[in-house]
Amino acid sequence: PPRAGDDARAAPARGDPPAPSRVGHLSSEEIVRPSRFDESCLPPGSAAWHVPRTAHTGGEWAIVDGFATPEECAALIAASGCLEELNEPSARYRMPPTNADYRSADAAGLQIAAAADLARRAAIFTGVPENDGDCVMLARTARLAPDDDEPDAARDDDDAASVDSEGFLLAPETGKSVESSGVSRAGETSADEKSGAALINVHHDHNRDERRTCTVFVYLSDVGEDAGGETFFPCAKMDSNRSKTDSSDPTCASEKSDPVADALASLGARGVHVAWAGAEDAREAAAVALCEERFESLKRHGKKTPPGAPNGVFVSGDGAPGMAVAPKAGRAVVFFNGASAESCPEAWHAPSRVRGDAPKWLMTVFKVGERASRMGGEEKAGETALAASRPDAAADAAADAAADAA
Question: Considering only Cβ atoms within 10 Å of each terminal Cβ, which end of the chain, N or C, has fewer?
Fold first, then answer.
């Protein structure tokens, strides 16, 4: 398995990467670029919102409510019990200022129709065919109990052998002393440390494989209103939240320069793809602080739902960049990663802490490969089987047969 520091390795050949274009420098052709999503594979009643001004990242982004059915979400959560990695929380996430009960596992071993169907649906929808380079992860994030501070109660992730479903690099530093991690030598934490940072980290999904074209993550559960767990894209900037005021206003983002995007692009140029809250490196800590400030500003200046977007998708009322997506069972977030973490700061994203009692469950498909110009007959057959099937107990056998045929 990859170890800490592997994120700086050279990327394998992947053909011609998408041109590194930055928000604010889009041509009219890029803005009106048509979607290549194939929505015929989606379950009945689903709805896809295409995120404006994102096509330059390698493909238009989308947020799809109903990407997974309630039955599929329930089946995946129920099947999670067979994944041993989910039995214990990650020690790295429990450390201040993260203070979260986080568990993740490779979902390749889930031999159920729901897992196969969602992976195939992600391939059909994005146009990036299924292949051996894809990675499917299942994760659970919950609020850390106030008295849950015994290190022996968590699994040891110091070897960085585990990666979570949103692509976080666990234990980015090995051999870190207890004192330097923010915990006192006596093992005590202050009240501020116990409350935790608003954002756990900020990361780019090239952290494990620079061939990753796009990411499809699917929320499998609700966490409750205003209970945290949002995924925040600090550099997402669309027409609906672009500043229309004087660019000299320091509270509004300039079309020519965004300090958050610049900070994240600088990390990418150094081969850094993840920065943690409380990082020892000054530049990483500064980047996370900028992202957290923007996240808090979004809430402080009034959350606004962009035109056409589903409830639970927010941008800032003051026109600053940034988009937050709240967890909702069955909702998928589809985004492209661009050529690199340096040239595509829009794809950097951050999970916020879960503050409510309900855990956040998430399945993520990291897609490797180029988008196909058109699907072959075998993929079309899989698409037809998915569109026609209903995710109830009576349809499981048919879904399995369709998966085998595809």
Answer: N
